[in-house]
Design goal:
Blueprint (H helix, E strand, L loop, with lengths): L2 H7 L3 H9 L6 H37 L7 E7 L3 E22 L4 E6 L6 E2 L4 E5 L2 H36 L5 H34 L1 E3 L4 E3 L9 E2 L7 E18 H12 L3 E3 L5 E5 L11 E5 L9 E8 L11 E18 L4 E3 L2 E7 L5 E5 L1 E6 L2 E6 L6 E5 L10 E6 L18
Parallel strand pairs: 1-21
Antiparallel strand pairs: 1-20, 2-9, 2-14, 3-5, 3-8, 4-7, 5-6, 7-9, 9-13, 10-14, 11-14, 12-13, 14-19, 15-16, 16-17, 16-20, 18-19
Helix pairs in contact: 4-5
Length: about 425
């Protein structure tokens, strides 16, 4: 190998040193890949630091600001005395003004029925006929006995007159006169007895025609035509008639409620309107009967079985619009509580120390006020002590109220109408 080739293929020490000191360039894509993770991590660290800084600043700002309490929204009511009408509600049942059991007065075979069951009948109308033959015969027999007795009486009278004439002339003895007189008196008694037998036979014959004792609604027959009618309690009943105009409504007042009402009346709280006590009834479908009734009876004792006091009202019932035996709602009006402060039941809080309400001042700051309740009627409390006219109380939202913390009034509401309050349920609209 010649010297030229050797020089071309062999590196000198200087050449090698220059190559070592010269930096080697990396590819562009590898440099970018190594920088991105570092940049991402730096961004995360910076974000966390900023969030932590903002959080701490917000806490410092919240601590430096005074606490702001959102006021409770409530509704209020102006307290004012008023007359509080009472509508007392009870359950009642209609009952016929008169109820008559039609019974046979004589025994015998039932020959015919002269009325239509369930229809109105008039007093004196023929309902049934009993076979009159035996009673016609009895009447004839007693009439014959009467005629015979009259003949004997006539004979006795003639004899007595003759003896009396002779006795006045001292022609007969006193004993003969007495005997003639006794025979005449006995004949008179015999005639009277025969007359009574005739009258009884006539009555029995008349009783074979059974008539309606009262006007009213007839019921179903108890004995069918052809049956034997007897005079015992079971065998004599033929039908029943109920007079439904006017009509009674029986109802019961709980003894405790009656006692409370009497206490209110005796204490001067409860009064009666000038028009007096009136009664209305509503049917099962809510329809209010168009007639107004009056209470005509109230028991003075308590029924031990029900602890109620039996009462009764009477209504006109033209056309028998009300049927005996119907269940109705009874509404008694005419009583009222005079000049009393009333508050809704929802405004009252029951505590261990008694009922309280929240009273508002001019700045709408509530304070606790103890009250004394006369009576609670459905959703209204009648106040005896604790509130005065012109004061404001919280009605709605009492559960969220804190004494001494101002509240916000949502809206003004008028005082509830006491007239709409009932002791039991709502009175249907007429």
């Amino acid at each position: 190998m010649d010297e030229k080739n050797i020089n071309e293929t062999t590196d000198t020490p200087e050449t090698i040193k220059e190559d070592v000191q010269k930096p080697v360039k990396e590819p562009q894509s590898k440099r970018s890949a190594s920088i991105l993770p570092l940049l991402f991590a730096a961004i995360i660290v910076a974000g966390c630091g900023y969030w932590f800084w903002k959080t701490e600043e917000a806490k410092k700002a919240a601590l430096s600001r005074p606490e702001q309490v959102v006021p409770v929204v409530v509704s209020d009511m102006l307290v004012k005395p008023t007359d509080f009408p009472l509508t007392l509600e009870y359950t009642g049942q209609t009952k016929g003004y008169k109820e008559a059991e039609v019974r046979a007065q004589v025994s015998g075979v039932l020959k015919s029925k002269e009325y239509k069951e369930g229809q109105p009948v008039k007093a004196g109308q023929v309902l049934f006929r009993i076979d009159p033959a035996p009673y016609s015969a009895a009447l004839s027999r007693n009439r014959a006995n009467l005629r015979q007795a009259k003949v004997r009486m006539d004979i006795a009278k003639i004899e007595f007159d003759r003896i009396s004439s002779l006795y006045s002339k001292n022609a007969v003895s006193k004993n003969e006169f007495d005997n003639a007189q006794a025979s005449y008196k006995a004949s008179i008694a015999e005639v009277d007895s025969a007359k009574a037998a005739v009258r009884q036979a006539q009555i029995d014959l008349d009783w074979t025609v059974v008539r309606a004792p009262i006007s009213g609604l007839s019921s179903k027959e108890v004995r069918s035509v052809g049956n034997l009618v007897t005079l015992d309690a079971q065998g004599s009943l033929l039908t029943t008639i109920i007079q439904a105009d006017p009509i009674y409504v029986d109802f019961a007042v709980p003894a405790d409620e009656h006692r409370m009402l009497e206490i209110l009346r005796s204490a001067g709280y409860m009064k009666t309107a000038k028009e007096g006590i009136t009664v209305k009834v509503a049917l099962g479908d809510g329809t209010v009967y168009d007639k107004t009734g009056k209470i005509d009876f109230q028991d003075q004792t308590v029924d031990p079985a029900t602890a109620d006091i039996k009462s009764r009202a009477i209504f006109e019932n033209p056309g028998n619009k009300l049927y005996p035996g119907q269940f109705v709602r009874v509404y008694v009006d005419g009583n009222y509580i005079h000049n009393v402060i009333t508050v809704p039941l929802r405004s009252v809080i029951q505590t261990s120390s008694g009922p309280i309400v929240y009273v508002l001042d001019e700045s709408n700051i509530p304070s606790v006020r103890n009250i004394k309740i006369i009576k609670t009627i459905k959703n209204t409390c009648l106040i005896q002590e604790g509130l005065a006219e012109g004061e404001r109380i919280i009605v709605d939202g009492v559960a969220k109220v804190l004494p001494g913390k101002a509240v916000k009034i949502a809206e003004k509401q008028p005082q509830e109408s006491a007239a709409a309050v009932k002791t039991d349920g709502e009175k249907p609209a007429e």
